[in-house]
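Notebook B, p. 112. Complex prediction, attempt 2.
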Amino acid sequence: MRKLTTLLALCAFICLACNSKNGETDKHEKISSKSVSLSASGATFPLPFYTLAFQKYTEKTNNRVAYGAIGSGGGIRSLKDETVNFAASDAFLTDEESKEMKPVIHIPTCMGAVVAAFNLDGVEKLRLSGEVLAEIFAGKITKWNDKKLTALNPDIKLPNMKITPVYRSDGSGTTNIFTDYLSKVSSDWKNKFGAGKTVDFPTGMAAKGNPGVAGIINNTKGTIGYIGSEYAFSLKIKSAEIQNSNGEFIAPNTASISAAAAGNIPDDTRTMITNSSAAGAYPISCLTWIVVYRDLNNGKNTLQEAKATVELLQFLVSDAIQAMTESVHYAPLPQQIREKAINNLKKITYNGKKLL
Amino acid sequence: MNDKIYKYCLITAVGLILPVGVGIFLTLLWDAMPAFEKFGVIEFITSCDGNSVAEGEKYGALPYIVGTLATSFLALIISVPFSLAAALFSGEYYRGKRFAGIIDSAVAMLAGIPSIIYGLWGFAVLNPILVSMKLSETGYGILSASLLLAIMIIPYSASLTKEFIMMVPSELKEGAYSLGATRSDVIAKIVLPKCMPGIISTFILALGRALGETMAVTMVIGNTNFLPKSITDTGNTMASIIANRFGEADGLQMASLIAIALLLFVITFIVNLTGKFIVKKLKA
């Protein structure tokens, strides 16, 4: 008798458990039928901004975005393989690269820069020109009290100390932007070392990631290195003012970075804005993009997902989100770039039908 | 019945290990082929990176091979006196005493520290010390990496060497003492010769660990891709360049990194074989 009661109780319990489980899955299905999950991968540089922006997007629409920060190159590869809804990249696709894929559209999302951080006792403000920066990294200027440096900084007493340049040991978009700038301002640099994600720097030493470079600069006197602005700003790292092509010495900050995109920008926004000629522009600034297929009807996207993707991109360049860039140490897109982004968004189709 | 189950489990396990090893070798070889085809095996091993705007991508493994061998062997040389001393101390002089136990656990603790912590210590403490001793301008370089590696491999060679020292039969030692030998005589003429093959094999094991160490080395070596000119110069190792570069690498660069991985695989294999060969010779 006792056994029977226990058995009955057990049965009842199991039934209850099953019931409640069923109820839960029902609820879950209801949510997921309404909301869309997007997946994306790409650049690590804008990750903090995207994390914030995607979170706001989820709050607003209940759609989720899963973003894998695997590097720009990896993101483009995933887009090519059609395993993601969109990719993020610090480098726009060149004409050659675009030929290998179906037509894509670049949507700029925010701006950043590369700063020249240094460690010198008693020196707070340092002024550098592009040519001098190139000569330092090429190993031609080797002492801090070199004539070219003292000429730029007449008010500072620079020590008779060896300059140790610090660069990135890993492949990085930061290196690409920095060396792109050096190539623009110094033909010598362009011919010898060129621009790229990994460059054979002739002198100094290297470390992995922004934290690695910043760490070496922080604990070694006489060093100078380049660091992504989002990292440098959040840690308030001391960095040099760089002379832009108008002859102004500009400290990197969100206003001077945004100013760099004020000049002539092509309609598809595929351009490097380093060495910008705009007034008040910090010369080593950059845009970062989200890359999507022009026609979203492919293996990865359903109509729902395509709609959500366009909606998300529109949301990213909206005033509300652009105003948040500075809270995570990026610079907002200037008005003209936002307009161009919206114009490009209007070109996106699904099965030939416009989405916006 | 039971015996059969044991047997089949064993065969499956062993049958899995071998293909995994061979498979790794073959995939590395396959993926490294583009680099070897482009540069040639000998040229790849004996040249440096030389990317130029005019001639395009060019990769060479020499600086990394030199960096790996230099740091590992230097680390081994630095670690030998310390690990031998620690082993003799707790295995012979203070055998079974409480003090030896303390030394043993201190050495074992060194083995348990994650390598990133060694790297951080080297970066924050060792490098500034090297600078203040005027041994190096910035602290970063082969010397710093070797010192760090030496500390990291001491526990491996020390604890294994101690086991071999303790295995020397006490009859032999007692015999020597009865003939009037001093303690240093016993160590130099009985203990060490008796367990020399064992000691050599432990040092080769330690060398193997130094060859593959990545994180700690990359934090202190300076990561420059040229041939180091002196031990205070900065350099790079094979494991470190792979860890640094593979994330954003593609095409020829990826193939070159895999080729470096293959070379590291081969070097480690050769080191182990040499070790076995030496042990065999000494035992015979």
